[in-house]
Write a structure and sequence with these properties.
six-stranded mixed beta sheet, 24% helix, 30% strand, five-stranded antiparallel beta sheet, alpha+beta
């Protein structure tokens, strides 16, 4: 089995689960016994600072919206780019953590990029591979720019277009495709 850690799963129209309609999921962990990912393009209507007091007594300086990482309930988790804080590096400059002290440090600063998630996407052993076999997911490498700079409203479409362009270039052996 090839681990998909550090890749994006892009929901195809063939994916039957409505929880993942037009979703882009960053795979944080993928092993024989299952996988864990965070949906990058689901934004909660609640701001982080509005729910922060239930999570910590430390101040929250962030006015960003909380992300909905997936349909499975779990602890708060973060993707961040703070080089001095602990975290598991998923792709260069993108770290993952659910440790309280890291989350408090992130919420208490405004200098480094981060996204805070409630919930996650989870798959049991072989479940994700089964969904991929029926064409439910497209796979592409993740980057810092995709995680932190692309607009969540257009992320799915931009990612699908990039995958389509790559396939077209490879199949037709074209060096440079026009933008449209």
């Amino acid at each position: 089995m090839r681990s998909l850690r550090g890749n994006l799963l892009v929901a195809s129209p063939h994916l039957p689960d409505p929880n993942f309609f037009r979703s882009v999921v960053l795979i944080v962990e993928h092993q024989e016994d299952g996988a864990l990912g965070l949906i990058l393009n689901r934004v909660s209507p609640q701001k982080l600072m509005d729910v922060w007091e239930t999570a910590s007594e430390q101040p929250c300086l962030s006015d960003q919206y909380l992300r909905i990482g997936g349909p499975v309930h779990g602890p708060l988790m973060a993707l961040h780019s703070h080089p001095e804080l602990d975290g598991q590096e998923i792709v260069p400059r993108v770290l993952f953590s659910s440790e309280r002290r890291v989350l408090e440090a992130l919420a208490g600063q405004t200098e480094h990029r981060f996204e805070m998630f409630t919930g996650y996407a989870g798959w049991g052993g072989g479940q994700l591979e089964g969904e991929m076999k029926i064409g439910g997911w497209l796979v592409t490498p993740a980057t810092w720019q995709i995680v932190f700079q692309l607009d969540e409203q257009t992320l799915w479409q931009q990612t699908v277009n990039a995958i389509g362009s790559e396939i077209t270039r490879d199949v037709l052996q074209i060096r440079k495709l026009p933008e449209d």
